[in-house]
User: Fold these one by one.
Assistant:
Number 1:
Amino acid sequence: MRLPKPDKEIPVEVQREKLREQMVSERINLYLDLKKILGEEKGIEVFKKLYDEGMKRIRKNFPGGKLPIGELMKRELVSFPVLGFELHIDHEVENGEDVYYEHLTKCPFLNMAKKMGISELPCDFICNYDVEVATRDKRGRWEIISRMGDGKKECQFRIREWKE
């Protein structure tokens, strides 16, 4: 006997929010599970390797494997809200150099960490590693100015093109 479908469908907005939460919690749980199973040091090392592999797949779609910072910022304005971020980006010229200030006022990873009741800040294992990777791969000079995880009203990043 086939069970009947529910009388009422789940609204699309509710479905989308559930998918967002699942995706965000999976990244956090992966980090925590790797550390639990492999130990602190090895777990973090594997998490970073998996992150790097994911970035390699994404970058295959960029011309030459790299985007100018201005173009990357435009893409983040489109892609980040899909993940549940709220943000705006300011473009300024300082000493003749293009500088972008990215302001995040809602972070789905921080919100999920609080909801999950974990003590670790996703700022430490997601955002800090984003900055580390950008610097290591010479994709830009990224600086963390403020983090909501530290009690600030927003996460702010200062981002410039890479220069030797």
Note: The two ends are 69 Å apart (CA to CA).
Number 2:
Amino acid sequence: MKYLLVTFCAAMSLNLYASECKSYEAQVIGEIVKVSKVQDVCFYKIEVSSINEHLFCPLTKEEIEIGSVQFEAGYHEQCPHRFGGNFSGILVKGRDGVINFD
């Protein structure tokens, strides 16, 4: 009975914290399956092969694969990541729903 109560309290505290998230994060390894550029912004589609979601504010595999990951290219003529290339890093989704490289 104590175990059930402790588990319930832990689950509730995680849910309360999740509503406080300003961003959602995950450490990701994957392959870049599409690259496009609009003005100074590069957009990537990533096929995730491995993911470690943030414990309290997770960015899920489904969110990453459905959406696009953005990168501000600035003055670079080409996007720094290439089609078919491997990607390893941290992705962050803000409250605006945009996923960016960290």
Note: The longest helix spans residues 2-18.
Number 3:
Amino acid sequence: MKTKITRINFSKIIFALCLAAFCFVNMNVADAAKLRRTGRAPEVEHDYSLNRPVLPNTGDIGVVVDGYDPMHIATAEAMIIEELAANGYRVVDEARMKKLRAAAARAKAARYALEGNVSAILKLNGTYNATATIVARVQAGRPVVNEFRLYTATAQAAMIAVTSRGTKLGGKTAQGKAVGYTQDEAQQKAIEAAVREGLAQMF
């Protein structure tokens, strides 16, 4: 009797493995067919190898940066867009980007998203046909003179991404610190360091 049970269980295991292999092959065939038909891979929002959500690999990504200094905002935006391109993502075109920025400012969407309320960003994703929007807020502190008579500045970059499905990425505040010959240089370098750290956490 024990032998019979062992054989039955073994048969079930073989059947389950064959079924899993069949499903895996069919999924790969379907994905390949979609790639041939549309030129795009199937949309992915989770990296199971890293066990964390990722930006969608289809569609366009929006970028909204908030802050007090226009130069710091421009620097952070340029760095985020450059990182997206380096990782194979597409960014929404400039015309839509301008409208997205303006709408986010009117709705205070960046602030709300960074505070955890992502509904405003979800609406903007739908309005401007973005599969996700990266929202960031950057701020540099007042530089201080160090013992070498140079300026040391610290900065923060809070960064979060919200996909059209409501998935959130990031959300942590990155820190940056830098030294410069002038206050502006120290602040600028600190902003860049904070944004780099924030991007490293997200990608």
Note: The beta strands are 46-47, 52-53, 60-67, 90-91, 132-140, 144-145, 151-163, 168-180.
Number 4:
Amino acid sequence: MGLIEVFAVVVSVGFGYLFFRLVKPKTDSGNIPLDYAQLFFAWSLFISTSVTMPQFLLIPDSAHLFMWLSRTLPFGLIAFIVGFAYGKFINREK
């Protein structure tokens, strides 16, 4: 792995962290299911960006950008739903 590939991975993790910080709930809103849904979505966004974005940075074309979107949107939706269900389940036990 060359220096350019390492740089692409570092930048991708940085973008993933940026997206994570933007989506993660900033304060406790009192709506526990929604907070968990946002947190799960933020983690899925961080992971999909960190894994898929280096290919886009190495070869910037629309196919790699679409690959990132096609992985981010479905897994983000699944993570949001799972986080919401988890928040509902945790809320019932308290």
Note: The chain has one domain: 3-93.
